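Reviewers of the previous submission asked for a worked example of the structure-prediction workflow described in the proposal, so we include one complete record here. The input consisted solely of the amino acid sequence. No template or homolog information was supplied to the procedure at any stage.
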Amino acid sequence: MLKKFTVSNYKNFKDEISLDFSKIGEYSFNMDCLSMRLIYGRNATGKTNFGRALIDLKTLLYGMFRNDENSVLINADSQKDTAKFIYEFQFGSDEVIYKYSRFENRNLCDEELYMNGEAIFKCDFKNSKFDFQGLSIIGAETVNTNRYLNKDEMDNEYVLPFLRWLINNTTFSDNSVLIQLFEYVRKMSMITVGNDLLYSNRDFREDLKNPVYLQSFEDFLNLMGIECKLVLQELPDGQVELYFSQNKLVPFYSIASNGTLALTSLYQKIVSNCSLIYIDDFAAFYHYEMAEKLISFFKTKYPKCQFIMTSHNTNLMTNKIMRPDCLFILSSKGTLTALCDATERELREGHNLEKMYISGEFEKYE
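From that input alone, the workflow returned the following structure tokens.
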């Protein structure tokens, strides 16, 4: 699992900002939300950018990013020419730290991997300096690193991460820490709720042909307070259409409310074997009771998944479903502070966190 994530000089985060899952308070309630973090922040504080930074690792290890015309990577006020990313993981008794930095064009500047405090490798692409002395620690001492360094095999416009190359060119056992790391990263995702409300995923409708999956989706909607019966029918052209079953069949996507469509969008994006999900603008389309039900659903359905959610819905700022060390404020200055660290009071289960927030108790950290 991810223990801690740190990024600096990325977009609006000039200084170092971290989210630490291992830092928890001495609270005895809501122990089932320790793998969750709910982040609040005024508009334009960088809640979306923080999610993009966190998911950058998946892009690095599974995708080939060249230039991103729709995004500025480096902080505009900084004199530094790279953005730095640090990921700290815990897999069983093993601690893994992976660091790298990117230039404006997203090419790698450097890359480092540590396991239990020992350096596995260090790559300084800017100065063409490489240290692979620690590969024996992970049983990869026989790997031919000259193949990786061979200029003829490397794309001059793209620096291939050594970690990605190493995993794809070395035989590791299934319980290898690096395999666990790679699998964890593959299952990371970022979701923006409601950005495609009218979008009907064709694969999703195909999945609904399975009666078990259709029933599961129907149960989910009913659990969220949307009482309905769903029917799937095949059209003359071979496509399938989803309906509400009332006195007559009513096309689902034509009559469903924005809240229902947002729920549908969220449901079809979350998969059962996810490792970490960053849900941006969580609860934007939901009544606060439905949002609470969603959080309870996540806790029950995905107990092994880590959730990070951003929201403006202060009704969720409550010890009824969360706790002060899992609720955070992202400030315009680029700081991320847990509620329990944002006041001189000792926050307890009986405190009305929403009322304290609205009254300005945590204002200096906004």
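The CA atoms of residues 325 and 341 lie 8 Å apart. We consider this example representative of the routine output the project will generate in years two and three.
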